[in-house]
Structure formats: C-alpha cells, structure tokens
Amino acid sequence: MSVDDQVELICHLRRSWGLEEAPPTEADKRVLDQRIADMEANPGVGAPLDEFMAKLRLGR
Known about the structure:
The chain is mainly α. 67% of the residues lie in helices and 0% in strands. The chain has one domain.
C-alpha cells in the first residue's frame, strides 16, 4: 500500500471515529516510511488488505 493510500486510510478512520481530520505528523510519516521499508524488505510477510479485512470481519 502506498504512503498516499495509507494516509488516506488513516484520514478515513479518523473521520469515521468522529475525530477532526489532521494531516499526518512527521512522526507519523517516519512510522509509515519504516513500515513500508519493512514490507518491501519482507514481501512474503503479511496479507493483502482484502484478506486481512475478511479475517478481521470474521474475528480471527
């Protein structure tokens, strides 16, 4: 997931929780950058978003 997609997801979640929309902080961006680097370094780890969401809905 691109950084822009991740930021969009975060903003969507904040809106859905009734929180005021705010741009990501520099600390937020650093965390996202590190997670992207981890994902790129270990492409076989994790699951696609649709699979993750399906498991989440099933309570697994």
